């Protein structure tokens, strides 16, 4: 057991994903079995009482690794000393709201949270944004944290990645652990590009095991539209799978993946022609607490076209939040 207690701040902690995330984070899902954690739960004032209830349940669970749990309605205090920020709380899209309205509403949330992270978080802060539109919300937060390296702000693409693994394992009768070099590029939206071109299953190219037709006409749309499908079938948006993926994302970033690829939404360094700074899904590997975009992959004309469509959407989102004065 290390003597260091790591602070994990969870926003939207009384919401569905926040609730599903907090208990596993308290059980060691991010830092592992040898690090104690402090959970800081951030909510809006209207949900402060519900957050207090979550904190009571966390205490009642007697997690050996949980050193303390605190609730806040002010981001400045919630992010004090935070090493991990799980930015889940966001305003859902309501009837009649255009995408631009959603971006503007959420800018009001992620700007102040970025500023609070800038002023109060620990030097090793790492942030994953779950609240939608996750990629652009992460961009807004990063822009409000000029003293924090921009690469510490990331967006959740791991749910899309895990969805792809699940579909492929089911189709081929393989174990998810046998699948290597799968990636989801682009935006966490229906425009995303789940890419099998480099994927191996038990060492065999995936595209020798499934047909090109299944890949293009079934796999890609199934993975890209899975969120909407879950809403339709389950009667509510993905919760436990989103929580699980957010924890996977942060655990792998901190503890490393070796040679294994995972998908993360990270600020582009210009790789693969994605404009610098856009928070875009890429295949990455993680070592020593840092991720690296997998370099030098061959991209077919099909892959380039798919990536372009999603990157254009990210560009438009960036323009929309610029026009709304949320970033400069
Ligand atoms: P929810 O409505 O159950 O919970 C959201 C919580 O956030 C609420 O308790 C609300 O009070 C809180 N909140 C709102 N503004 C806040 C603020 N400024 N500070 C702190 N808390 C705030 O929603 P949910 O099902 O938990 O989903 C949360 C978000 O995650 C949504 O935006 C959803 O679209 C998104 N989502 C993302 C993915 C992904 O893969 N990126 C997957 C599923 C859902
Ligand atoms: C998901 O991928 O499940 C969510 O982003 C869907 C949504 O719109 O909340």
TrEMBL record:
Any one GO MF term held by the record is:
L-malate dehydrogenase (NAD+) activity
Residue positions of the active site: 188
Catalysed conversion reaction: (S)-malate + NAD(+) = oxaloacetate + NADH + H(+)
In this protein, which residues make up the domain named Lactate/malate dehydrogenase C-terminal? Answer: 158-321
State the source organism's domain of life: Bacteria
InterPro entries, A to Z: L-lactate/malate_DH (IPR001557), Lactate/malate_DH_C (IPR022383), Lactate/malate_DH_N (IPR001236), Lactate_DH/Glyco_Ohase_4_C (IPR015955), Malate_DH_type2 (IPR010945), NAD(P)-bd_dom_sf (IPR036291)
Residue positions binding NAD(+): 12-18, 106, 113, 130-132
Tell me which residues bind substrate: 93, 99, 132, 163
Might you give the EC number(s) for this enzyme?
1.1.1.37
Q: Which UniProt keywords apply?
A: NAD, Oxidoreductase, Tricarboxylic acid cycle
Taken from the record, one Pfam family name reads Ldh_1_N
Q: Lactate/malate dehydrogenase N-terminal domain spans which residues?
A: 8-148
Q: Which HAMAP family match?
A: Malate_dehydrog_2
Q: What is this protein's function?
A: Catalyzes the reversible oxidation of malate to oxaloacetate.
Q: Which family does it belong to?
A: Belongs to the LDH/MDH superfamily. MDH type 2 family.
What name has this protein been given in UniProt? Answer: Malate dehydrogenase
